Write the structure tokens for this entry.
Amino acid sequence: MKLIHTVAAFGLLAAVSASQAADPNLGRNLAATCANCHGTNGHALKGAGLDPLAGMEKAKTLQKLAEFKSGDKPASIMHQISKGYTDEQLDLIATYFAAQK
């Protein structure tokens, strides 16, 4: 019975990964959750005190997210938000923002 559960879990994981790869808008959709603080498509309002994410180099975004996720970078809420995403999802988000003008 344990083997059946293990096989089912791997199948579900593969299906989720495949659905993420199949959706060309997934990065945009995930990045939309950042709009409340960082502005639509990563264009933060001037004077808001938040980093604009649009056009930020992907590696820089991923580094910041990793620092939030690990707790190395102090934050009011980003440490909690970043932990809610897989590394693959964070990669999609960073890729999306890097492509914004």
The chain has one domain: 25-98. Residues 21 and 50 are 30 Å apart (CA to CA). The two ends are 52 Å apart (CA to CA).
